[in-house]
Structures are given as structure tokens and as C-alpha cells.
Write a structure and sequence with these properties.
- The protein is α/β, with parallel strands linked by helices.
- It has two domains: about 30-115, Rossmann fold, CATH 3.40.50.10860; about 140-270, NAD(P)-binding Rossmann-like Domain (Rossmann fold), CATH 3.40.50.720.
- It contains ten helices and eleven strands.
- It has helices at about 5-25, 45-60, 75-85, 105-110, 125-130, 140-150, 170-180, 195-200, 250-255, 270-290, and strands spanning about 5, 35-40, 65-70, 95, 160-165, 185-190, 205-210, 225-230, 235, 245, 260.
- The strands form three sheets. Strands 1-11-8-7-5-6 form a six-stranded parallel beta sheet.
- Helix 7 links the parallel strand 5 (about 160-165) and strand 6.
- Helix 2 crosses helix 10 (about 270-290).
- The longest helix has 21 residues, at about 5-25.
- Bound molecules: guanine.
Length: about 290
């Protein structure tokens, strides 16, 4: 039976460490890190992620500013706000919550963010630093997963790691981090990879980030594998007050008995993304105020 990789517990540990540092800053009468978050439109999941992020700021003692705009905001106006945040000496880091409305180019917006304040680790500069000797602000979700693997003492060196999903936010940087920091042998698959099962069955560590509930079934997992599920799809559930439940890409009940470790959804990777954002904000603060 697999052991649960408790992302919430590790995220709490990380946040306690950061809160301790903030306490020391306050005692030294220094200003505390300040995170700004841009949230556009009414996307339900985005509002709930951002609420988790502002709560984490409160929990660790950071200052935060939430800038909310209607989905109709023009790209030009959004660019102006980003330029202001780049210039604002009181803001140590900021993020633009994705997804953005169709008329706004994520690539254009990301390119405008000053990489020193890019606490999501989305800019080309930070992304590229994954494969340098001096990593900068690393993409938050894969950074959190590496921290989870590390804190559970799971060996990656020389292991077969299979990443399903090659997004710029998760799959692509995840594979680079496993290769570079983890010294693993890495295979990157897509949802539509031919013989996906043939690849996933080779995985000592299987990381799935597609957003398709039920994609990974028990027959696709090697006994004893470590399984990390990044999927968070809202699936209708009338028994819940909200009317939905968050569901991962892995059939948890089926896979649990064969895995050595597995992340639950919710309570696995989600809290770690937020903890990484907090860590990156502290790092950005330190870099700019050392
Ligand atoms: N949307 C889904 N995940 C993320 C994330 O990690 N950062 C931002 N900015 N938007 C997201």
C-alpha cells in the first residue's frame, strides 16, 4: 500500500520556516516581503487559487496587494500595471494569475515582467536558469514538487522519471529540473503520446500534469512507483456544498495499493505551489535588499 505524500504538511513546514524569517526581519525593524497579485476576470479556480495565495501571505506575515481587473481590461492597460509593479520599490515580487482572457497574450505579458520580481518563475530568464549553475526564481509548481521529493528523501539520481504533460508552467520545467537538479533519466510524454502506457510503465517516478481525470489507471503504473498528480479538474459533485470536487489525473483508489508513494488531490501538489511562491518571494526580497 502506498504512503501518502502529504503536500499540505510539507507546505506548512515551508511556511513555518518563512514565518520565522519574517519574525526576525520584524524584530530587526526591517520591512517584510511584499507580494502583489494581478487577478483578471471571474474564473472560479483562479479566484480560489488567489485566495489560497493571499491567505498564505497572511500566515507567514508578508504584505500583499491584490489588484483585480474585469475580463475586459485591454492588454495595453494591463501592460501599464505591470510596468508600474516593475518600478515600485515597495513590491518585491508579483504574479499575474493565469489563465488570461483570450484577447491578452500570455507570452507578451510574461515578457514584460522584471525577472527579479517574477516569483512564478515564468520569464525566459528564470526558466533558462533551471539549467544553469545558479538557478534564480524557479517555476513554482515544479519547484514545490522537487521540494516534496527531497523532503521525503526520495532518490531521483539515475531513476526513470516520466512526466506526462509538457506545459510551460509544469511539465516542461519539471522535466528540466528532474534532469538537472535530480540527475534523473527523463521521458516527457503528452496526453496523446503513442503507447503512453508503455512509457508510464517504465516510470520509477511518474508525474502527471494534463488536467484529464482518469488518464492514469492502475495498469499504467509500475508496482512500487512514486506517483505525483498535478491535475486539479473540477468535477460535479452534488454532495459538496460547492457543487464540485477537485479531481486529479490519476485514478487514486486504484493506484494507491501499488504505488510506494502517491500525492492526493486535493492536499498534494496544490499547497506546494503556494509554498514555492512564498519561498520565491522571500528569495526575490533577499536578492533585491541584500
Ligand atoms: N494558473 C494555474 N497555475 C498557476 C500558477 O502557478 N501561477 C499563475 N500565475 N497562474 C496559474
Amino acid at each position: 500500500m502506498g504512503a501518502i505524500l502529504d503536500g499540505k504538511k510539507i507546505a506548512n513546514e515551508i511556511q513555518s520556516e518563512v514565518a520565522h524569517r519574517v519574525k526576525l526581519l520584524k524584530e530587526a525593524h526591517k520591512r517584510v516581503p511584499h507580494l502583489a497579485i494581478i487577478l483578471i476576470g471571474d474564473d472560479g479556480p483562479s479566484h480560489s487559487y488567489v485566495s489560497g495565495k493571499t491567505k498564505a501571505c497572511q500566515a507567514v506575515g508578508f504584505d500583499y496587494t491584490l489588484l483585480q481587473f474585469a475580463a475586459t481590461i485591454s492588454e495595453k492597460k494591463l501592460c501599464k500595471h505591470i510596468e508600474q509593479l516593475n518600478e515600485d520599490g515597495d513590491i518585491d515580487g508579483f504574479i499575474v494569475q493565469l489563465p488570461l482572457p483570450q484577447h491578452i497574450s500570455v507570452e507578451h505579458i510574461t515578457a514584460l515582467i522584471d525577472s527579479k520580481k517574477d516569483v512564478d518563475g515564468f520569464t525566459n530568464h528564470n526558466f533558462g536558469s533551471i539549467v544553469s549553475d545558479h538557478p534564480l526564481l524557479l517555476p513554482a509548481t515544479p519547484f514545490g514538487i522537487m521540494e516534496l521529493i527531497h523532503r521525503y528523501h526520495i532518490e531521483t539520481k539515475g531513476k526513470n522519471c516520466v512526466v506526462v504533460g509538457a506545459s510551460r508552467i509544469v511539465g516542461a520545467p519539471m522535466s528540466l529540473m528532474l534532469m538537472e537538479q535530480g540527475q534523473a533519466t527523463v521521458t516527457v510524454c503528452q496526453e496523446f503520446t503513442q503507447d503512453l502506457k508503455g512509457h508510464t510503465l517504465q516510470a520509477d517516478i511518474l508525474i502527471v500534469a494534463v488536467g484529464k481525470p482518469g488518464l492514469i489507471t492502475a495498469d499504467m503504473v509500475k508496482p512500487g512507483a512514486v506517483v505525483i498528480d498535478v491535475g486539479t479538474t473540477r468535477v460535479a459533485d452534488p454532495s459538496k456544498k460547492s457543487g464540485f470536487k477537485l479531481t486529479g489525473d490519476v485514478d487514486f483508489d486504484q493506484v494507491l495499493p501499488l504505488a510506494s508513494f502517491i500525492t492526493p488531490v486535493p492536499g498534494g501538489v496544490g499547497p506546494l505551489t503556494i509554498a514555492s511562491l512564498i519561498l520565491n518571494t522571500l528569495k526575490a526580497y533577499d536578492r533585491q535588499h541584500a
